[in-house]
Specification:
Layout (H helix, E strand, L loop, with lengths): L1 H14 L8 E7 L2 E5 L4 H9 L14 E4 L11 E6 L11 H6 L7 H4 L3 E5 H4 L5 H16 L4
Parallel strand pairs: 1-4, 4-5
Antiparallel strand pairs: 1-2, 2-3
Helix pairs in contact: 1-6
Length: about 150
Amino acid sequence: MLNDYNQRVEKLKQQLKQADGLQVSVILTAQNWIAFYTKTSFPGSVLQDVGLAHPPIQDIEGKSWVQVSQEDLQSIDGDAIFLLHVASDKMPGSFTVNQFVKNPLFAQLKAVKQGRVYQVDAEVWHLGSNILGANRILDDLFKYLVENTH
């Protein structure tokens, strides 16, 4: 399974060569808070495997995720945003992409203006911490960063 994962990572790297320097944010929202995932988080480690960068402001050591205030929204921006959505009542207030992009607070973000906010399953991206979850993250990266650009 690890060999298959590594082969998929290499294939994705090749297909993303034209996107060199792409900065990707992974964020989670709930009722009244917003958090971004750092490179040491599970999704952050998969993004690193693929060679995708986080915005430099998110390079925080020793934490998997960092809660940010609504006044500090620039820290969640990037060329693309993967919005972790919780589809159950476990986390009320989890935004869908439509809610996120229509919210005046987020409308000024570069990724929103460019239509590059992608809703993904928080159960996989946040809790999937195994090879199966890593492959599901790769599925989303292929879907949104490769297939959507061709």
